[in-house]
Amino acid sequence: MGLRDAAYRGYEALLSRDLKARGSGPRHIGVILDGNRRWARLSGTSAAHGHQRGADKITEVLEWSKDAGVEVVTLWLLSTDNLARDGHELSDLLEIIVDAVERLARDGRWRLQHVGDASLLPPDIAQRLNAAVESTEDATELHVNVAVGYGGRHEIADAVRSFLLEGVAAGHSLEEVAKQFSVEHIAEHLYTKGQPDPDLVIRTSGEQRLSGFLMWQSAHTEFYFCDAYWPDFRRVDFLRALRSYAQRERRHGR
């Protein structure tokens, strides 16, 4: 181990002790896995290689989250905007993503849930995602939302549509359904219904925006923007995000 690695190990240990002393951390963390293509470009490799390196990072981050007492992690793997990418790159990316989800399922520790619109995905990809998710029903260590074909605006539109269709199916007119509509009804029809809202969202690559990630759920969320590209995201970066969260006064709009 070189001096640089030893220094990082010491710093990680210091951060870990500090976090344990502070007590309660986030129950739900959202992660925007950004920077794979830029990492690949700087490394002189293909975009597919960058996406694969990013996929290989996922299990590490889930293990760090479990060790930190996190209960739910939402990983944004593919947005609705990403579906408009060049056909060859999108095909490679979808294969890398579904392979990563299948590996998480085979691990046996993570209870997976697909978050997104499966109808936007190629049928074979949607089928494989669904099979992987269903195979983890008995896993208990960490609830992991895999956001594939996900967009925040799309989710809210789906929630409203679902509420309206549910009301009509129950025999009510659209006018009657609209009259009783409230913000609580949206929450009850989101992809993440029944889960705690994210306490912390981490975005890698230096970009400081949410790009529509968990728009409804993140009304009172804390955000942490990390300069490292996702394939280079380290445990020390993760611990810094948790320390930043722990140092903030959360007032939830009050």
Question: Can you give me a brief rundown of this structure?
Answer:
With 254 residues, the chain is an alpha/beta fold. The protein is built from nine helices and six strands. The chain has a six-stranded parallel beta sheet, with helices on both faces.
**Secondary structure category:** alpha/beta
What does the radius of gyration come to?
19 Å
Share of residues in strands: 5-15%
Looking at the overall shape, the CATH architecture is: 3-Layer(aba) Sandwich
Helix content: 40-55%
How many domains is the backbone divided into? 1
Tally of strands = 6
**What is the distance, rounded to the nearest whole angstrom, between the alpha carbons of the first and last residues?**
48 Å
Mind summarizing the main beta sheet? Answer: 6 strands, parallel
Shape: globular
Mean of all residue-level pLDDT scores: 92
CATH class: Alpha Beta
Report what the structure shows.
- This protein has helices spanning 3-22, 36-43, 47-67, 87-107, 123-134, 152-169, 174-179, 183-187, 235-246, and strands at residues 28-32, 72-79, 110-115, 142-150, 200-203, 222-225.
- With 254 residues, it is of the alpha/beta class.
- The chain has a single domain (27-246), classed as Decaprenyl diphosphate synthase-like (Undecaprenyl pyrophosphate synthetase).
- A six-stranded parallel sheet has the order 3-4-2-1-5-6, with helices on both faces.
- Helix 2 packs across helix 3 (47-67) and helix 4 runs parallel beside helix 5 (123-134).
- The termini are far apart.
- The relative contact order is 0.17.
- The mean pLDDT is 92.
